[in-house]
Amino acid sequence: MGAPVVSSGVFAPVRWEPRIYEGSLKQAAVVRSHVRRDLSGFAPGLVDDVEYTASGGEGGEVVRRLSLPEAGLLRVEVADGGFTDTRPVVAELSGDDWFTSERHRGLLMVSALAKGWGFYPVFAHPTLNLGLVVWADLPVDPAQVPAGLPRFVHTA
Question: Which domain of life is it from (predicted)?
Answer without folding.
Answer: Bacteria
